[in-house]
Amino acid sequence: MRFYLATGLLSSLSLDALAQTQIGQTCVTDDVCYKLSIPEATAQNGDGNIFLSLSAPTIYSWIGLGIGPSMTNSDMFVMYTNGNGNVTLSPRYSEGRAQPQFDGDLDVELLSGSGVENGIMTANFRCGNCARSRTANFDAQDGQWIHGRRTGDAMNTTDVQARIMKHDVQGGFTWAYSSAVGGASTNPFAASDTVISGSTSSSSGGNRAMRSNILLVHGIFASLAFLVFFPVGAIIMRLGQFNNVLGVHIATQVFSWLLFITAFGLGLYYGITGNYMTKAHPIIGIVLVAMMIFQPLAGWLHHRQFMRSGQRSTISHGHVWIGRIAIILGIINGGLGLELGGVETRYVIAYSVVAGVIDLAYIASIIYGEITRSRRTSVASSGHEKINSSPGRTLVTA
Ligand SMILES: *[C@@H]1O[C@H](CO)[C@@H](O)[C@H](O)[C@H]1NC(C)=O
Ligand SMILES: *[C@@H]1O[C@H](CO)[C@@H](O)[C@H](O)[C@H]1NC(C)=O
What we know:
Number of strands: 13
CATH architecture of the largest domain: Sandwich
Helix content: 40-55%
Protein name: Iron reductase domain protein
Structural class: alpha+beta
Radius of gyration: 28 Å
Number of helices: 10
Strand content: 15-25%
Bound molecules: 2-acetamido-2-deoxy-beta-D-glucopyranose
């Protein structure tokens, strides 16, 4: 961000070296190449025109490029020959692992330089609303893209909705945006001052795999913490009917807490390096950490105090209520995280079902716990019965 701001500032001072049109090129094999140019205005606003180019030999019936890490919720661009010496550019939307469907809402415009020449088909185009994709963030340092192609006869059709055969080669790459930012909002492929910097996808493959693993572990750890262990640890404290309920509560919650903190660390790394920190999911994550950071200490103080007086203090209420709010907020934030990550719908459904069941059980246990607690407290205060009818139950009512 600072780099782009600096670029913008310097070029507005007409320093030609930095005002040049920048194109970032990624060749996924020798002669199948993708180019990207992000005008300075788009890089600064995170929204606006971008320019893309697809080129490949006509031994392929089609090639395609998609925004995001997978075919789930991906905006895509498919190119094939139109039979008149030019190409058809078909903007599509892919929901999952099925054939991407034509999407007329994607604002694309084929530009000069497109065509079929010497056995190479090329589509140079402008995309006006590519930032609509949840996974596209053009003021980030880089972004995840996917590509695919199919060897076969020329399609020779101007039909943007034409049926395409399934890809026989597909893959993904990380596009470094810093090398693609610069220039005005006109056709960069026709500009004379163009600087093309290239990378091959293999060099960024390791980084991409590592990033998607980080995201996976982040999601699994955070889901286990908020969907399973935090609520279970809290329910045990409410409803547990065995000796050493407190010990099990502490062990469960410390374990959940470590899972959460680890997930947070991974998410923070991913969010900062991918420039996602202005989205709701990471912001709520930071709020959660702020809420949870002193929960172990507050729990211990609450316990010590409760042993002494047998009653809830401010710390107790803080510990109990922060825990409740954090669990609910964490479960909601998990949903936002799934949305931000563009996760497949069936996983979102699975998450929602588990979250709903856990939520109900958890809220029921809170209500049940509060009712029995107030009953016991009132019985105790009227002098008929001591609070701790059995050893260990004292703590359970806390
Ligand atoms: C596609 O059209 C080109 C002319 O643009 C022609 O040379 C070629 O044979 C056609 N291919 C097929 C499979 O129809
Ligand atoms: C292909 O179509 C684009 C957009 O209409 C045009 O700018 C370009 O010149 C055409 N290419 C050829 C070789 O006719």
